[in-house]
Amino acid sequence: MYNDKGNTKYLKLLKQNYSSSQDVIREIVNLSAIINLPKGTEFFLSDIHGEYEAFLHIMNNCSGVIKEKVDLIFKDTISDYDRQELCTLIYYPREKMALLDEQGKIDSDWYAMTLNQLILVAKLLSSKYTRSKVRKALPKEYAYIIDELLHAQEDEDANQVRYHKQILKTIIDLEDADEFIIALSALIKRLAVDHLHIVGDVFDRGGSADKILDLLYDYHSLDIEWGNHDILWMGAACGNDACICNVIRNNLKYNNVEILENAYGISLRQLMLFGMKTYGIEDGIEAARAAITVMLFKLEGQLILAHPEYEMGNRLMLDRLDDLQDVGVDRKRFPTVDDERPYALNDEEAVIMRKLHRQFVTGQRLQKHVRFLYDKGSMYNVYNGNLIYHGCVPVDSNGAFDKLYIDGEFYHGRALLDKCDEKARAAYVDNPYKDDVDFMWFLWGGEKSPLCGRMLKTFEMEYVTDKSMWIEPSNPYYSRYYDKSFCCQILHEFGLYDDDAHIINGHTPVHAIEGENPVRANGKLFVIDGGFCRAMNKKTGIAGYTLIYNSHGLRLKAHTPFTSVEDALINNTDIETSSEVEENDKRRMLVKDTDIGKRLIGEIDDLHKLLENYRRL
């Protein structure tokens, strides 16, 4: 059975890693033990929209997981106040210790007590992982010491306990306890979340997406499902001028000039001066917004005319401005629009656009962040039996997968998302095809785009006084995803047939204040956009959702608005979380039930074949 040439070659390759039958046996034992551990905790976040402080806090408290573990261990031994102060210490160790030191609360007894408490929390969180995996997570400078402390066991003569106490005493005596507490706190947060899913829209509205990406850049394990706002910035970095104008307009609208000028080095001075002169507006921000908005509609019009396959002809507005006066459009707000060539930039606009274009495509920090989005991101992800994407799978009015004509062929369903992923990546190469770069704008704002899925009414919201014309029709997906059979149709399209499979969706804020439920289709689909950014808090009534998927099942958590880091440090305030939904598995999920586990089971099977081969020699 194992003597064919292909198998012999494969076994020779395996033997290079396992030189004896005993090596093989040891690895089979190791992998068999690993696959029977509880699965790691997955953490889903969506629509962060530049809210760095709230995001940082959610990452620090792991959506309430840290507090749950602290309460579990210490509920009967320390007060509510002291437990919350311990949590704040774990979230912000350096800052909290500085404050406690100012208050005169830190001494050797405090260090001894706190170090013991942190070790107990770390022990609990490390218990679901192999010792090898925990070692890999340890900070290098304290790896040996922490490993000893986590695995110290009380023996008959209490030698291990004395050994443990002496380690801590020496750390305190050497005045290294602060750094050790910082290292332990980082380990606790690292062990609390095994893998992070960012379900789109890091950018826009809030002003600190750059800081969020800096934080994510070194995160131990994550994936990103691109959102329409992410793809907009990616398109801008690829050199799509319509995307560039949209990025600038969005950030001017939310008064986030700092992320453009300070974070990414995009100068708006020339645009502001042009806007003030041409539009007669004294305020530089408003003048720049007026100017960039008209440039935006010109450039979008050029793309729509060049690509009839986008099916967006109804968004051409500048060639019918006179007709739109009946709905409140003031023709005077378009001083640079030439009736003969309404979609052409004038000479000054063209100069400004060339300079903005150059800054977006050459900015080192922006390019670093966009490369990261490409490296870690995709249109969708199938992970441990769940289908994760930001927007939608476009369908027609009958609920059938809608077709889009791209590069001479029609695509729908999973093939459409795969093709969109391919086109997006093709736009970010040296000397890309113009059609691929153009397509980035369609992904941002196309009604049939899986990342948008609605008709954007940017023009109407800017210029039309009749608010009834601001309503943005959405893809039928968003009215049908309450139906279980429809969601199953989508899951099957992506190869998921298990009863426990789910769709994890972002993009559309859940108006919890109006009683809207984030769970659709009898639990088959979760919408986890709860209005994370401050600009959405009043509309949703909450400050975002997070989804936690651990070995016990799924938990969707709703959050209260974050006050500030200063308030958290002084008053130990936290983002209060409440479980909106709990879906507990009938049996505890193990590593062998995950994608990694299935791969390990395959490796175990291969090792058994190799062991049999050794024994035949």
Throw out a few tags for this protein.
617 residues, alpha/beta, seven-stranded mixed sheet, 27 helices, 52% helix, 9% strand
What does this entry look like structurally?
The chain contains 27 helices and 14 strands. The mean pLDDT is 90. Helix 7 crosses helix 10 (159-173). The protein has a seven-stranded mixed sheet with strand order 4-3-2-1-12-13-14. The chain has 617 residues and is of the alpha/beta class. Helices cover 52% and strands 9% of the residues. It is globular.
- Overall pLDDT level: 90
Helix content: 40-55%
Structural class: alpha/beta
Beta-sheet strand percentage? 5-15%
Q: Characterize the main sheet.
A: 7 strands, mixed
Shape: globular
Number of strands: 14
Which ranges are low-confidence, i.e. pLDDT below 50, for 5 or more consecutive residues? none
Radius of gyration: 28 Å
**Count of helical stretches:** 27
Order of strands in the sheet with most strands? 4-3-2-1-12-13-14
Measured between the Cα atoms of the first and last residue, the distance is 15 Å
Short description:
The protein has 617 residues and is α/β, with parallel strands linked by helices. The protein contains 27 helices and 14 strands. The strands form three sheets. The protein has a seven-stranded mixed beta sheet with strand order 4-3-2-1-12-13-14.
